[in-house]
Design brief:
Elements (H helix, E strand, L loop, with lengths): L13 H7 L13 E3 L9 E3 L3 E12 L5 E9 L11 E4 L3 E7 L17 E2 L2 E2 L3 E3 L2 E4 L10 E7 L4 E6 L4 H4 L5 E7 L10 E3 L7 E3 L4 E8 L1 H9 L12 E4 L25 E3 L11 E7 L5 E5 L4 E6 L2 E2 L10 E3 L2 E3 L4 E6 L55 E7 L6 E2 L2 E2 L4 E6 L10
Parallel strand pairs: 3-6, 5-13, 16-19, 18-29
Antiparallel strand pairs: 1-2, 3-4, 6-11, 7-8, 7-11, 9-10, 12-13, 14-15, 16-17, 19-25, 20-24, 20-26, 21-22, 21-23, 21-25, 26-29, 27-28
Length: 437
C-alpha cells in the first residue's frame, strides 16, 4: 500500500478532544478470580484462572454521537456496574468454560453459545424450551427477578465466537444481552518468535500483543424507551437509528479503552500498528469482526485489504490443511457471523524526503488547509511546518487511515452523518520511535 497521509477531516471539534485524551485510561475494579486487561488499545479480555465467570444482568445508559443517551441491558461481571457491550470472555482451547448467569431483570433470560457443542445447563444438556407446544426459549432460562442458571461446555475449537440471550432474542439481543467469546488455541507446535496462532490448526499467525475487535451492532431507541418505561413494543416496527462499533459511535470509537468520559462503554476500536518489516516487524495484526445486528455490515478499512483467515471459528484450510485464506477489500459480516482477518501496513513506495520525495508539488503554506490528523508532512514520522494556530492532533508524525462501514446509511446517528461504526488505523513510525505509548 502506498504511503499517504489523511489530509481531510469534516467531523468537528469533538475529534480534537477525543484524540487529545486518546491515551486516557481509568482503573477497573474486578473480583479476585476474574481479571480484565486494561490496555489503552486493542481487545480487553476478561479472564478467569478456571474459566469460570459469573455474569449478572444490569441496566444502564450509553451515550450516542448525537449527544442522546439510550437505556440498555447488558451482562457484567458480578459485582461490577453496567457496561456495553458485555465483557469479552477469553479462554483457552480445551477449557471447560462455566458461565453462571444471575438474572435481575423482570423477564426470563437465557444464554446460547453459537459454535459450542454439548452445552449443559444446570448439569443437563441444554435444549430449546416449549410451553403448550410453543417455543419459548432456545435454552433453559434464568427466571425473572433473581433466577440463576449455570451453563458449561468444553471450548473444543479456537476462534472468535459470540454469546447472547436465547430467550426472545429479537428483543433481548437488541437490548444488549450479548458479548464476545475468544478461544485461544493450544497446540503442540510453537508459533514463530513474536507471533501467536489464530487457530488450533492451520498456519495463520498474528503479532503477539494488541489484537483488535470490531463488534458491530444496532439500536432502535424506541424499543429501548418502551422497555425502560415497561411498555409493550411492536417488533414489526423495529427500525435501527444508531449503529455502533464496540458499543460506541464515531468519534468516541477512537478513544482509548476505559476513557473516563465513557464510563459505561469501555471498549475502543482504534487499531494501532507499526509498518511491516521483514525482520523487525514481520507478523500482521489481527482483527476479530462480530455482527450482533439484524443485517449485513460491509466494513472497509481504507487503502488496505485484509486477509480473511477464518470465519465462525473455522480456519480457512482444506482437508489437507492447505491455506485457503484470501484477501478482501470489504469484510461483509452477516448477522451472527464472526470473521478473523489479519492485516498490515507496508511502505511500498519507500518515500523519503531526501532520497525518494513524494512526487507532488506542495502548495504554498498560506494556501493549504490542514485536517487535524495531518502532521504537516507527507512522510511517516515527520512533523512538518503548520500554520499558526493549527489544531493538528498528531503526536509523532503518525498516519491515520479511516475504516468504516460501507453501508453509508449506517454511518449515521439518527440523522447525524459521518458518525456510527467508523474508526481509524493508526500507523506509528517504525520502532524505536518517540510515540507516546
Amino acid at each position: 500500500m502506498t504511503i499517504f497521509k489523511l489530509k481531510w477531516m469534516r467531523w468537528g471539534a469533538a475529534l480534537g478532544i477525543v484524540l487529545a485524551l486518546l491515551m486516557t485510561t481509568s482503573a477497573v475494579n474486578v473480583q479476585p478470580a476474574v481479571a480484565q486487561s486494561a490496555a489503552a488499545d486493542g481487545i480487553v479480555c476478561t479472564t478467569s484462572a478456571n474459566a469460570t465467570f459469573t455474569l449478572r444482568t444490569e441496566s444502564g445508559y450509553i451515550g450516542m454521537s448525537d449527544d442522546n443517551t439510550v437505556f440498555m441491558w447488558g451482562f457484567s461481571v458480578a459485582g461490577q456496574p453496567f457496561q456495553h457491550p458485555s465483557p469479552t470472555l477469553c479462554v483457552n482451547q480445551g477449557d471447560t468454560v462455566t458461565v453462571i448467569v444471575q438474572n435481575t431483570l423482570a423477564e426470563d433470560i437465557s444464554l446460547v453459545f453459537p459454535g459450542q457443542e454439548n452445552v449443559v445447563a444446570n448439569g443437563v444438556l441444554a435444549a430449546p424450551q416449549f410451553t403448550g407446544g410453543a417455543l419459548t426459549s432456545l435454552a433453559p432460562v434464568a427466571t425473572a427477578n433473581g433466577g440463576a442458571m449455570t451453563y458449561s461446555f468444553v471450548a473444543s475449537r479456537a476462534g472468535t465466537f459470540i454469546y447472547q440471550s436465547g430467550t426472545n432474542p429479537d428483543r433481548q439481543v437488541r437490548m444488549g444481552l450479548f458479548g464476545a467469546l475468544i478461544v485461544r488455541p493450544v497446540r503442540p507446535d510453537s508459533p514463530p518468535a513474536g507471533a501467536s496462532f489464530v487457530y488450533g490448526e492451520g498456519s495463520a499467525v498474528y503479532k503477539t500483543g494488541p489484537e483488535f475487535m470490531i463488534m458491530l451492532s444496532e439500536v432502535d431507541p424506541y424499543l429501548n424507551q418502551a422497555v425502560e418505561r415497561g411498555q409493550p413494543f411492536d417488533m414489526s416496527l423495529y427500525k435501527p437509528r444508531y449503529w455502533l462499533i464496540n458499543g460506541r459511535g464515531f468519534p468516541d470509537s477512537i478513544a482509548s479503552n476505559f476513557a473516563a468520559w465513557l464510563p459505561t462503554q469501555p471498549y475502543g476500536a482504534l487499531a494501532r500498528i507499526n509498518p511491516y518489516d521483514p525482520t523487525a516487524n514481520p507478523h500482521p495484526a489481527l482483527v476479530r469482526y462480530l455482527n450482533m445486528g439484524t443485517i449485513e455490515f460491509p466494513f472497509h478499512p481504507h487503502g488496505n485489504n485484509g486477509r480473511v483467515v477464518g470465519r465462525d471459528g473455522y480456519p480457512l484450510v482444506n482437508s489437507d490443511g492447505a491455506d485457503l485464506s484470501f484477501d478482501k477489500f470489504a469484510v461483509n459480516v452477516g448477522p451472527g457471523q464472526t470473521w478473523d482477518v489479519t492485516f498490515d501496513w507496508r511502505d511500498n513506495e519507500g518515500y523519503n524526503e531526501t532520497t525518494n520525495p513524494v512526487p507532488v508539488t506542495i502548495p504554498n503554506l498560506q494556501n493549504m488547509v490542514f485536517g487535524m490528523f495531518f502532521s504537516g508532512s507527507p512522510y511517516l514520522g515527520t512533523d512538518g511546518v503548520k500554520p499558526v494556530g493549527d489544531t493538528a492532533m498528531t503526536q509523532c508524525g503518525e498516519y491515520y487511515i479511516i475504516a468504516h462501514n460501507h453501508a453509508l446509511f449506517q454511518l449515521d446517528s439518527w440523522g447525524v452523518p459521518m458518525t456510527g461504526p467508523a474508526t481509524f488505523t493508526r500507523v506509528d513510525p517504525p520502532l524505536p520511535n518517540n510515540c507516546p505509548q
